[in-house]
């Protein structure tokens, strides 16, 4: 057998650049290395977009599979209910509060065009206060059910973290998760754990609580107002 023919059968003389038809990938690893891949791997290149997380072969760096978005593991552990079933009929004696909640939260989500026509800006969230067991969480879940929204519940004390920046990152991850599961209602229980009065303090723990609260305010209405966030 001709050695040249044998080499061609083994793929030695195959021009990979001409076969890939312009499909290539640039990877950024967890160690901040930048790697160019002329051959993508086992994933369809058309299904990849900038910023996607992927699993690669440790030696060749060929892409083996796509990974879900990176959220803080503590956010995943929090209560996420995509199909709440609560109804306003489950709540007794709070007709006035339910009506106010519907006007502030439900109507801006279900009849957005009415607010735009009247030139009214809907409120940026509502504050529910009262003793434990008075139906605050139940009313929020009923609103999510009426608007067919995902219900994401956070606990205020869990946002107070030991290390600098952890609480703010948790808030950012929660809002990013809510945007991907839009429409979504975020219910922050015991928000007084971070919603304290601003004051100058030399204690690192107090400063971290204020950083977390500032990040929450920034997500609600930062430099650029987002009408999707109510």
Molecular structure report:
- This protein is of the alpha+beta class.
- The chain folds into two domains: 3-67, no CATH class; 73-220, P-loop containing nucleotide triphosphate hydrolases (Rossmann fold).
- It has eight helices and seven strands.
- Helix 4 crosses helix 5, helix 4 (95-110) packs parallel to helix 6 and helix 7 (166-180) runs parallel beside helix 8.
- Keywords: ATP-binding, Cytoplasm, Hydrolase, Nucleotide-binding, Protease, Proteasome.
Integer count of domains: 2
| Rg (CA only) | 25 Å
Give unreliable regions as ranges.
none
From the coordinates shown, what is the CATH architecture of the largest domain? 3-Layer(aba) Sandwich
Give the tags.
2 domains; 36% helix; Rossmann fold; three-stranded mixed sheet; 7 strands; nucleotide-binding; two-stranded antiparallel ribbon; ATPase_AAA_core; peptidase activity; alpha+beta; 230 residues
């Amino acid at each position: 057998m001709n050695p040249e023919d044998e080499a061609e059968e083994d793929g030695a003389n195959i021009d990979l650049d001409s076969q890939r038809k312009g499909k290539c990938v640039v990877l950024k690893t967890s160690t901040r290395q930048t790697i160019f891949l002329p051959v993508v791997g086992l994933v369809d290149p058309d299904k990849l977009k900038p910023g996607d997380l992927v699993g690669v072969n440790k030696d060749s760096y060929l892409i083996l599979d796509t990974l879900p978005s990176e959220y803080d593991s503590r956010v995943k552990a929090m209560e996420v209910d995509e199909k709440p079933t609560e109804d306003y009929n489950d709540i007794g004696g709070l007709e006035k509060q339910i009506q106010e909640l519907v006007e502030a939260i439900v109507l801006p989500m279900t009849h957005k065009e009415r607010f735009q026509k009247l030139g009214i800006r809907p409120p940026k969230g509502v504050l529910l206060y009262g003793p434990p067991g008075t139906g605050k969480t139940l009313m929020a879940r009923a609103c999510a059910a009426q608007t067919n929204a995902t219900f994401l519940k956070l606990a205020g004390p869990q946002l107070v973290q030991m290390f600098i920046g952890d609480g703010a990152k948790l808030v950012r991850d929660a809002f990013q998760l809510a945007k991907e599961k839009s429409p979504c209602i975020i219910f922050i229980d015991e928000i007084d754990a971070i919603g304290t009065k601003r004051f100058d303090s030399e204690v690192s723990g107090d400063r971290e609580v204020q950083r977390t609260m500032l990040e929450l305010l920034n997500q609600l209405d930062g430099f650029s107002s987002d009408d999707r966030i109510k």
